[in-house]
Amino acid sequence: MKKWSLFIGSYSGIKVFVHWTFWIIVGWIFMMHFQMGHGWKEAMIGALFIIILFGCVVLHEFGHALTAKKYNIPTRDITLYPIGGVASLERMPEKPAQELAVALAGPAVNLVIAGILYIFLYANNQLLSISEIDHMGGKNFLFNLMAANLILAVFNLIPAFPMDGGRVLRASLAFRMDKLKATNIATRVGQVLAIVFVFLGFFSNFWLVLIGIFIFWGAGAEAAVENAKSVLVGHRVRDIMINQYSSLPPEEKLENAVGLLQNTQEQGIVVEENNKVLGILTRKELVKGLSEYGAHYPISKIMRENYPRLSPETPLTEVYQYFAVGKLTLAPVLENEQVIGIVDIQGINELISIENSRPKRLIKSMERKN
């Protein structure tokens, strides 16, 4: 279970959670309508509209998740926040065509919803002009829902990370150039747009300032990940695999995990039984478990069961993306279904530092050899 989030269901093995902060926006919409003198009924309809609209956001995220599943990319969960939904894919596709399909799937869902609503409203002669919309109730409800889905689709197609449009732009460029160059171009485009949003926001709507900051930060983060991955090209898990690692059976208590990790640089432990991996427990998850449940709580109750299964030949570019997207710090390495070691984020970061310290000419020479 995710802390501070309510599990509301699952589909195709993908769990859906609602973060507690989501209800703040529902309450805010309710109070806004009520204080404007629209009455209880209008306030309730306004809150219901937001809940249904976020249901459309969930469908948007399932568009991404189910398309990614076609390419054997699992999604851990979908979580709703006040700013929207987040589908936690284990990684993004490397092939441009696949990334393009995954990125476009979300906005396509919103366009389909808007199209269905348009047909229904047209067939029932309920299409309205903008000047006719003055409240949420009655026939305006479905018209507003149609308009909101159109806005969601268009907004998400802004060509800037971390919006879907940023990935669409990168994937389109990657058909003609390498992914790193495509990412850097998409990042610059996104950051220029972010600066424009911030500038316009100071003279119109302050929300544009916040959106601009969000886009600028997201674009920079995406570029940092891709640049780090470019340094790891040619390296595989075997290059940094750690043969000696700490492990415990699932019935052990958290205090025993503390004893193993204390005074070491290890990023976590492998939970295994009869040399079969059942899960992993990172330092962060261990500290969180201790604060919430105490030292005598079983490891099996808080271990992470969703983790990448690595082999010695897995490219480190893939591992880095697994770690970045899944917020992982270690993963087991398997051979013939047996654990032979681990890879941790510290080892990856050290390799990145070493490669970045080499002269560029030497790096290029090594890449040619690989």
Automatic annotation (TrEMBL):
Stated family: Belongs to the peptidase M50B family.
Highest taxon of source: Bacteria
PROSITE patterns named among the record's database cross-references: CBS
Cofactor binding note: Binds 1 zinc ion per subunit.
GO BP field: proteolysis
Record's protein name: Zinc metalloprotease
Active site per the UniProt annotation: E61
Localization in the cell: Cell membrane
Alphabetized GO MF terms: metal ion binding; metallopeptidase activity
Main localisation: membrane
Cofactor(s) the record lists: Zn(2+)
PANTHER family: MEMBRANE-ASSOCIATED ZINC METALLOPROTEASE M50B (PTHR39188), STAGE IV SPORULATION PROTEIN FB (PTHR39188:SF3)
Protein topology in the membrane: Multi-pass membrane protein
Binding positions (Zn(2+)): H60, H64, D164
Species classification: Bacteria, Pseudomonadati, Bacteroidota, Flavobacteriia, Flavobacteriales
Domain CBS per the UniProt entry, residue ranges: 241-299, 303-360
Segments traversing the membrane: 12-31, 43-62, 100-121, 141-161, 182-200
